[in-house]
Structure formats: C-alpha cells, structure tokens
Amino acid sequence: MLYITDEIIDKIIKEDVPYSDITTEMLGIGEENGTISFYTRSEGVIAGAGLAGKIFTKLGCEILSEVKDGEKLSTGSLILKAKGKAEALHTGWKVSLNTLEYLSGIATLCREMVDIAHSVNQNIILAATRKSMPLSRELVTLAFQAGGVSAHRLGLSETVLIFKQHIEFIGGFDNIERVIKSSNHKMVEKKIILETENMQDSLKALHYDFIDGLQLDKLSPDEIKNIVKERNSINPKMLILAAGGINKGNIKEYAASEADVIVSSAFFHALPLDIKAVIERKK
C-alpha cells in the first residue's frame, strides 16, 4: 500500500478551493445534508478510490461504500459513496472525480498491457518510468500499483542508472569499468544498471562483473532476444531490461524477447476512465 500523507490530501483540496466555494455560499446550501456517489461509465481498473475516500473524510464526510484500488469494474458499477454536508460534498466533488478518472485511466492501461505481456511471457515484469508531471509521482505510482505495474525508478537516489549522457563526461564507453571500480562511492545496497543503445556495446557489457543489469534502449525484439541468449551463457545473473518506445501496440513482441523487465512511459498517455458523480439531497 502506498502511503498518501495528509499534506498531499490538503494540497489537492486547497488547489481547487483556495479560499471557499462561493457558489455554495451564495446559494446558502452549505448546511444541507446529502450524498455523493461515483459510478463507472465504462469498464476499467479503479485507482484512487482510497484517495478520494480520504479527501471526503478530511472534509468531514462519512464513507458509505468504497471499492479497493485494483478492482476491475464493469460499466455502471459503484466506486465510492459518501454522505455529509453539501458544502463538503461540493468541495470534494471535482477533485475526487478528476483524480479517479486520471488514475483509473492509467491503471486500466497498465492492466491491459500486463495482460498482453503475460499472454506470451508469464514471468516478465512491467515497470513504469518516472516521466510523470512534477509533484504527481506519488499519485501515478498508486495507479501503477493498482494496474499491476512496478515503478522502474522513483528518483535519482534509488538506483545507479548510467546513460550515454553520463558516459559523455567520463571519456567514453571503454572507461566505465575504470571509473566505477575506482569510485569512492561504493553502492553496496544499490543495483548498478547500464543503458546501451546498440548490439556491440550490449554484448560487450554482458562480460562486466561490476554491473547488475543492462537496459537496452530502442533495440528491436529480435536483437533483445539474441542478447538474452548470450546473457544466459555468459552472465546468467545479469538483469535484462527492454526500454524505449514500448507501448500497447508492440508490447507482445517485446515480452516474447524474454527480457526480464519491460520499461515503458506509455502508461502516462492513458485516456482518463469515464466516471460520473451523482449528488443527491437527503432530508
């Protein structure tokens, strides 16, 4: 379970209500009692139900019904129902709806891609990149988890991932071993992953005993399959990650390459799941 702090909840609410809901105030309906219910308009995997529940709880509402993140619902299914004062219901309405639609859209695409990949390779892991909008990483990570996708790398402090942009500053690919082995910053508990962009560098790197994995960027499924075959005979413990341009349309071919992990940014381009909110007055 991903821990969402009260600070994040407060920021979500405060962004939409910087001072007060002047429409509810003008109409004088704030103290009226009511309920709000969220329903799916199309089939999808839900993410953000718990978050929406926390928003309404923070606003003083009582949660009457709430599905778990990761549940796949059919059209017309109830996601969340809460009761409270009209002021609170209207304050939480749009921020909860937007959050549910956006996160559930991501979770739905994640699950679709996982299902396609597992249809040809049950052991492969899908991982999402960190190409999210700034300040949204906790929320999109919640969506990935709901859809069955792992986080590839949540931040620069998590994994040593060496790109060509790093190699530019050490004098070239052939200097990687010298620089890593002479470094004073030993990553005892961190994996070291090297990204390669061609067959020559990839095959050479299979012999490196100072890295834990290879991230193959924009190589074809056939090229990756050949590298995996070489890996199995040269260095079976080395992790092989396939990355670069992998999406719902081609993930099946990449999963069949027998890489250990597929890294993708396609999840961020998911369409929001269509969800409706119904607010009703209760006497």
Structure description:
The protein is built from 10 helices and 13 strands. The protein has 283 residues and is an alpha/beta fold. Strands 7-6-12-11-10-9-8 form a 7-stranded parallel β-sheet. The chain has 2 domains: 6-114 and 271-281, Aldehyde Oxidoreductase, domain 3, CATH 3.90.1170.20; 119-267, TIM Barrel (Alpha-Beta Barrel). The longest helix is centred in the middle third of the chain and has 33 residues, at 86-118. Helix 1 crosses helix 3. It has helices spanning 6-16, 22-27, 49-58, 86-118, 137-147, 164-167, 176-182, 199-205, 221-234, 251-255; strands at 33-40, 44-45, 62-66, 72-73, 78-85, 125-128, 150-151, 160-162, 192-196, 213-217, 239-243, 261-264, 275-281. InterPro entries: Aldolase_TIM (IPR013785), ModD (IPR006242), NadC/ModD (IPR027277), Nicotinate_pribotase-like_C (IPR036068), Quinolinate_PRibosylTase_N_sf (IPR037128), Quinolinate_PRibosylTrfase_C (IPR002638), Quinolinate_PRibosylTrfase_N (IPR022412).
